[in-house]
Design a protein that fits this description.
- Strands 2-1-5-4-3-8-9 form a seven-stranded mixed sheet. A two-stranded antiparallel sheet has the order 6-7.
- It is α+β, with helices and mostly antiparallel strands.
- The C terminus is likely disordered.
- It is globular, with a radius of gyration of 19 Å.
- Strand 4, helix 3 and strand 5 form a beta-alpha-beta unit.
- It contains five helices and eleven strands.
- Helices cover about 25% and strands about 25% of the residues.
- The chain has a domain of about 130 residues: Glutaredoxin (3-Layer(aba) Sandwich), CATH 3.40.30.10.
Length: about 190
């Protein structure tokens, strides 16, 4: 396998067909959403199903962090449609049958399973910011924990951002919340993760 893209790299532009046969492009989300592009080997296999269902069940939390989920596999469109329907998936799956996008991200390559070697997709995810820059690469996780890995990373990033703002903050003596020093304590408080 070639080296996959790293954080700080610009994400490659791509357009692929989704589970309904519609064209979806990464550029559709530029300036609007963070995008989790997750590559998985094959729809309807046990590990991929666990991963997808946990992402499905985490949609509200992903929405809170303004993260759109795009799952990419070499499966044909009709298989993705069946996978979505069978498991009531609530996010977009994209068909990369010639693994061209997987190649661009560097996640297609030699794999080993039960003593056999073959070419396929490596289970790696990329969190891409609104400007199209790869913010974080997730390459060390269990399929059942993938959704939590992403959410915990973004939650920690939100805390860091809140603590490093240039506006001076103080603790509210009653609630313990951080509020701007100039804000009167009876006014609506700015919600900041702490």
């Amino acid at each position: 396998m070639q080296q996959y893209l790293q954080a700080g790299s610009r994400a490659p532009s791509f357009s692929l067909l989704d589970q309904q046969g519609n064209t979806v492009s990464l550029s559709d989300f530029t300036g609007k959403n963070n995008v989790l592009v997750y590559f998985y080997p094959k729809a309807m296999t046990p590990g991929c199903t666990t991963q997808a269902c946990n992402l499905r069940d985490s949609k509200a939390e992903m929405d809170e962090h303004n993260i759109v989920v795009l799952g990419i596999s070499p499966d044909p469109v009709n298989r993705l449609g069946r996978f979505t329907e069978k498991h009531n998936l609530n996010f977009t799956l994209l068909s990369d049958t010639d693994h061209a996008v997987a190649d661009q991200f560097g996640v297609w390559g030699l794999k080993k399973f039960m003593g056999k070697e073959y070419d396929g997709i490596h289970r790696i995810s990329f969190l891409i910011d609104k400007d199209g820059i790869i913010e974080k690469v997730f390459d060390q996780f269990k399929t059942k924990d993938h959704h939590n890995t992403v959410i915990n990373y973004h939650f920690a990033t939100d805390i860091y951002t809140a603590r490093t703002r240039t506006v001076p903050f103080e603790d509210d003596k009653i609630t313990g919340e951080l509020i701007p020093k100039k804000q009167h304590k009876t006014m609506n408080r700015i919600a900041i993760l702490y």
